[in-house]
Amino acid sequence: MKRCVTHLITGLGMGGAETMLYQVLKYSTNSDLQHRVISFGASHFYEQLIRNMGISVIEVDIKKKPLTSLARILHEIKGTDTLCCWMYHANLIGYYLGHLSRVKKIVWCIRHSNLDADRNSKLTMSINRHCAKISKSVSKIAYNGQTARFNHEAIGYCKQNGVVVDNGVDCELYKPDSLAQNGLRQEFHITDNQKIILSVTRDNPIKDIPTFLEAISILHRSKTDIVAVMCGAGISCENKRIVSLCEQQGLQIGKDIFLLGTRNDVARLLAGCDVYALHSAGEAFPNTLIQAMACGCLCIATDVGEVRRVLNNDQWIVPAKNPKQLAAALLQAQTLTITEKKEIAYANRARVKMEYDIDRIVKQYEEILK
Predict the structure, then answer these.
(1) Strands of 226-231's sheet, edge to edge?
(2) Could you tell me the residue range of the domain that residue 186 belongs to?
(3) Which of 165, 195, 219 is a domain's end point?
(4) Burial class (CB in 10 A: 0-12, 13-18, 19+), 91
(5) Exposed/middle/buried for residue 124 (C-beta within 10 Å: 0-12, 13-18, 19+)
(6) Which candidate, 32, 157, 101, 266, places its Cα nearest to that of 93?
């Protein structure tokens, strides 16, 4: 008899938790597990992709209709064997509704490591503190990195039921592509002598977009021949705040920097760039970093969360919130020989295939869920 696994998640956009959930569903090979998803809010990027796999997706509008939504969730999780909750709000709601429905096993997935008050809303901090108090009553807490586990257990999360499951990447989807860069240059009319610096991010304070833009501005003022390309939720010309930040740094959109918004060809963009920059002020375990490494990118990243362990190359790690040092590392990358770049590309991809291949990671999730 199949084991029913219900995933409770705050949304199905293109965030890290949503991506990992989608990958667990897509690459699961355990036929004894029957998955379904309950999402808080309207349909987003992964909703139809999950439905296309024949997996049920139930949507509730918990912001506009909280009581109705909670009643619906309570009804839907009856008979569930494992309730897998993704992110704080789902963890809290899943805990109480799961116990009311007498769900046999409740799993929390925590994908956040920075617990500083100035980097999180008061509501998030309050929910987090409450979850710490009740954490001993859940079956498992799956953290996506040692840093996330350490920081949460330091504020009272139960140590006995914690486990670390790293993020994973499909190395057949994210791989080097010799034709990608030419296509990227043609699409945006970028000359051959201009180096492409890519940022895959979203409009959120924790991603520290101002630091990246200031670093790019420093390079432009030093006459370094580069072009910045940014993509992700909210990273578009329609976002007046992002446009204003670019203008403040003297960056001309469509010439010095391109704002692409949400894209469904991130693998192509990564394979086509010269340097990938991760500029977050805080991360647990950034999906985009291992995706970039799998594509053979030279990666420069801020020293946050699991980045140092994942990248395994201190030469390309810089302090967070330091645009000058980020600019210096980006400048240094321009001086590498073709041979040096190839060596880094090979090492990055080999490391990801060895440590973070998606099939290996999904098997760890299956062990937790069964």
Answers:
(1) 257-259, 226-231, 195-200, 275-278, 298-302, 317-318
(2) 180-355
(3) 165
(4) buried
(5) middle
(6) 101
Domain boundary, last residue among 138, 165, 192? 165
Q: Kindly report, residue by residue over 200-219, the tens digit of the pLDDT.
A: 999 999 999 999 999 999 99
Number of domains composing the chain = 2
Are residues 322 and 190 both part of a single domain?
A: yes
Q: Are 197 and 344 part of one and the same domain?
A: yes
Angle between helices 209-221 and 323-333 (to 10 degrees): 60
Q: How far apart are CA 346 and CA 344, in angstroms?
A: 5
pTM (predicted TM-score): 0.91
CA pair distance 145, 164, nearest whole angstrom: 6
Residue 119 has pLDDT above 90, yes or no: no
The answer as to whether 361 is a domain residue is no
Burial class (CB in 10 A: 0-12, 13-18, 19+), 263: middle
Looking at the chain, how many residues does it have? 370
CATH number where 196 lies:
3.40.50.2000
- Mean pLDDT in residue range 43-69: 92
Co-location of 236 and 347 in the same domain:
yes
Phi and psi torsions of 207, nearest 5°? -80, -15
Q: How far apart are CA 280 and CA 305, in angstroms?
A: 10
Q: What is the pLDDT of residues 93-107, one digit of tens each?
A: 999 999 999 999 999
